[in-house]
Design a protein that fits this description.
The longest helix is centred in the N-terminal third of the chain and has 47 residues. The C terminus is likely disordered. This protein has 198 residues and is of the alpha+beta class. A hairpin with a 4-residue loop joins strand 1 and strand 2. Strands 1-2-3-4-7-8-6-5 form an eight-stranded mixed β-barrel. The protein has a single domain, classed as Sortase (Sortase, Chain: A, Beta Barrel). The protein has two helices and nine strands, in the order H-E-E-H-E-E-E-E-E-E-E.
Length: 198
């Protein structure tokens, strides 16, 4: 083979690899968006029937809450558990963390490039509404945010009062995994109306 032909083959291989990586990234984004539509339907059915409804037959999880930040116009359906498969489709409610509105800390985790991409825009004082599958809505007020190590978050699931922690990877625009997490903290608003789902 001539040198020119080898260079052309090398360039074609690099281009094919680039397209493959781009397609995988686009597929992850598309899957995240499509899944939220299916999860919205399953969550609405869960609220209406009072029983867990899987979003698709093979799912190993089900919708347990809807998280909304009205000031940003953003929302996401949260799933039971925080397995890798669950987090591919939406925020996960961490096992052994409190139910929304209950004493302790309710913890939801999600990917920084999909369902919790908006976390960096949440400001102190912003309301975060969490609607459970039983239709009850709890309004939390953002109290702050911090960057912590994944193994030293300081989040206490048995904290006093009703707390909320939304967790994603740091840095928010990062492309690789790392040990840091970004945590948004909120507290159940005193006298906050606990309403039925809209």
């Amino acid at each position: 083979m001539t040198r020119r032909r080898l260079l052309n083959l090398g360039a074609a291989a690099i281009a094919a690899l680039g397209l493959t990586i781009f397609a995988q990234g686009a597929w992850i984004q598309a899957k995240a968006v499509l899944a939220q539509y299916l999860l919205e339907d399953a969550f609405a059915e869960s609220v209406a029937t009072g029983r867990p409804v899987k979003p698709w037959d093979w799912a190993d999880t089900w919708p347990v809450a809807k998280i909304e930040v009205p000031s940003l116009g953003r929302s996401a359906i949260a799933l039971a558990g925080s397995s890798g498969q669950a987090l591919a489709f939406g925020p996960g409610h961490l096992d052994r963390s409190a139910e929304p509105g209950e004493p302790g800390t309710t913890v939801y985790a999600a990917h920084r490039d999909t369902h919790f991409a908006f976390l960096g825009a949440v400001k102190v004082g912003d309301a975060i509404e969490v609607t459970r599958a039983d239709g009850r809505t709890f309004i939390y007020q953002t109290t702050g945010s911090e960057i912590v190590r994944w193994d030293n978050s300081g989040i206490s699931t048995d904290a006093r009062g009703a707390q909320l922690a939304l967790v994603t990877c740091w840095p928010l625009d990062g492309k690789t995994r790392g040990p840091l997490r970004y945590v948004v903290h909120a507290t159940l608003k005193e006298g906050a109306k606990i309403a039925e789902a809209r």
